[in-house]
Amino acid sequence: MAHRIEVVSVIPDMRAVVKKDEIESLGINGVKDVKIVDVYTIDANLEEDDTRLIAGSLTNPVFQESSVDSPIIKGDFDYAVEIGFLPGVTDNVGNTVREGIEGILERQLDGQVAYSSQFMFLFGSLSREDAGRIGANFSNPLIQRIQVKSAEEFNRDNGMGVNVPKVSIQEKPRVDLVSLLTMSDEELAIVGKQGIANIDETRRGPLALDLTYMKTIRDYFAKEGRNPTDVELESIAQTWSEHCRHTIFADPIDEIKDGLFKHYIRRATEEIISLRNDGFCVSVFKDNSGAISFDDNYLVTDKAETHNSPSALDPFGGAITGIVGVNRDAIAFGLGAMPIANRYGFCFGNPDDQRALYKKADKMEQMLSSSRIMDGVISGVNSGGNQSGIPTTQGFVYFDESFRGKPLVFVGTLGLIPREVNGKKMHEKEARAGDYIVMVGGRVGKDGIHGATFSSEAIDSGSPATAVQIGDPITQKKLSDVLINEARDIGLYNSITDNGAGGLSCSVAEMAKESGGFRVDLNSVPLKYPGLQPWEIWISESQERMTLAVPPEKWSTLEDLLKRRGVEATVIGEFTNSGKCVVDYNGENVMDLEMEFLHNGLPPRPMKTTFTRSINTEPDFKQGNDLTSSLHAMLARKNLASFEFISQQYDHEVQGGSVIKPLQGRGRVNGDATVTRPLLNSHRGVVLSHGINPSYSKIDTYHMAAAAIDTAVRNAVSVGARLDRIALMDNFCWCSSNEPERLGQLKRAVQACYDVARAYEIPFISGKDSMFNDFKGFDENSRPVKISIPPTLLASSIAVMDDVRNAVSLDAKMPGDLIYVVGNNRGELGGSEYFAMIGEEIRGEPFIGNDVPQTDTEINRVTYIALSHAIGLGIVVSAQSVHRGGLGVALAKTAMGGMLGMDIDLSKIRGLRMRDNPDYMRSDYELYSESQGRVVVSIAHYHRALFEDAMLRGTTNVSISRIGVVRDDDRFVINGEGRRVVDTSVQALLESYKSTFKGY
Length: 1000
Description:
The chain is of the alpha+beta class. 33% of the residues lie in helices and 24% in strands. The longest helix is centred in the C-terminal third of the chain and has 21 residues, at 740-760. Among the domains are: 2-156, Mth169, Chain: A (2-Layer Sandwich); 618-641 and 809-1000, Alpha-Beta Complex (Phosphoribosyl-aminoimidazole Synthetase, Chain A, domain 2). The two termini are 43 Å apart.
């Protein structure tokens, strides 16, 4: 018999207050009050006393009360709306409740027996339609169910009833043969796009295999003299997917026969490593993360991922899965790195945009709004990081209408790993023939089916709900702790990897390259519920799982250790040296592929590109006499405003190593870089930063990519990093990557990566790409629409800092300090935030312009080296990189950080000015140009000569201009063109800066 436990707060519940406010924001004004009840449904045979004990364990007696098997609230309400998970969706709360029940009963329970839900009692003048709208707003139909009852129905039925969302699969598991050998090319293409046909002629979901790939697969099996099983075809699709194999970066393109990655990214790194020969790079492009030298005893690792497609469908689940998944990339580096910091980056559509989009015509399958996606993604990364005990230190948020169809959700994790333990190098791993294949952590379910292949496609009406997973950070925390803190250092396994994209099919096959083959018995794989098809077991991406290679003689020791720590582990097969990938089910062979074909059989697909530089209408408008209002408006823009509402809910203090924090100074201003000290007995630290400029790609993707890298480097240098201690990650998010013009834009961007990295001698150590970030569907009038993101490169930098006590924050410190701008302004406003704002004011849409900021690596390199030298002398008081929003925003952030005013004179700026007229610069262009290579710094007045000497040091390539002074009050004054152009207070600037997301 199932039991229903309801828990309610007896004091005011802030969750209910927030819900009421959100309901009013929907335009439903009749709600007078909201009460929230937490529900736990227990599907187990329990004695009455046991049920009462369980209810008591779920209730805080100080401010809550509970009931068992009867409604806890009755009476004068209007509607009750309950929201719970659909069958098979990961229920983290339910999983935790089950563990608590096992502790109370002192026995193990089989499978999922506890389910969580929540319902709202709504008081006020409401219709059933209103109640339904409220339920729909707080739920996601892909993963959740809604039940609505009026007060009359609720009292008549004695509550909401007991709903047990248990998975019940009636179809008998079987292995199907796919008749490729007799298929026409047209039929092959359909299978590759839509998936294998079921008995009822529906399709299983995308294989993301084009006709070239499908014909190659058909030819292979023709030589084998048989048709493939569905397990084999699904496995090949996962391994060959764009998500896993990065085929667009690997295939020949134009004259580049070795592909974009090898020709530009890898070649840059190999040349830099050879040139420097300093041991800084230890492991690049061959493991789950990249690794650089931290000190004589440790390496630090870095990896970033995207979770764009899942986050568009289920923002919370997609984002939490992304962050815990990239945590596993740290855990899976070498023999296991300890996660020490998370980073994030979000590109959203305008949250005020309420336009409806649908995956199907006739208003079928509505996509979530930008605001729903934003809220869910932020909450998902919050839960994943905070519950894992990993500080989330550095990030950004960016808005553009092009992200309305598909957001970009970047997540990254740093790891720390010893160089050696007991004489063994920890960054080296190798599965050996005879090792057990051990699956550790969570169980396998239908969640995450076709995740890798789905991510290789645009979102459309065929996008499967099963592609969405929900991560469980608590389960993963237990897994991480026992592996990193105990099993690793006593040598209980030879190799480890993440069960991420493609599930077991990819993790086992990737590790088998180390040994030369494998054999797996699918009957041994632990399942969340019975009835899964063999192919589903093999490719499911259900979360919190790792695959280990365990020597047989060490298995019993590892099994006992994991069991004592509450982590499930199961032997599912054996690594071999057979050269074969073999999978059995019910005693029959369901997969038998050559390793060589699985990993290297995909044919090259030569690509051709075209490129046309965009020519946009050049903005023509007059500058206002008073730029005070424009500065306030700029600071309030979503891409420049404070996102403190994100930073303050992400725990960056856990583990105790935070030095330069996400919010800096008395004004709590968002910084562009953070500094973390991973070892508390050392002053050595890690600097994290990023650069991203999607708007520049609307003009030229070469300069978009160059500026992203330059900004990531400049931000790191501004807090104290040195060029020779910085490494980079490239994370490309592109659109329509089967179109020659888009490929031409990609080629230019990747070439910029090579040029800038080589110029700065900064290596890439890891990267990722997501190549089909397009939405194809219908608008509210059922008209077909395609929304593509702007081609985007996120450049992430990681640097090792010898002494964090020399780190520099952005905030002005003392009245009388001198303000300098380092670097040249070229009046470049193409793709700038200022042009976008002016265009919106004049014509209702952003101006783009043509003069995109260009990166002069020769001058910038010398400038950054000089600035690092000055910071090393301890004479730089504050430093703020000049990037989005230009000099005006950088000065304002410095002033707001310190809550101190400034006197600035733009006429004091030296060096390059407008290209066509070096003697003149409009004040608005001076303030809002986004020319690269510039930093605002402040120094004590008595260090003026020392600073200028340190910066110039006999070179004429560095431009520095002393443009002002820090005031002893909060007046913020800028003079230009012989007059005062800005006159305001720091407090007023801060109010504008923090106004945009004040209600979040």
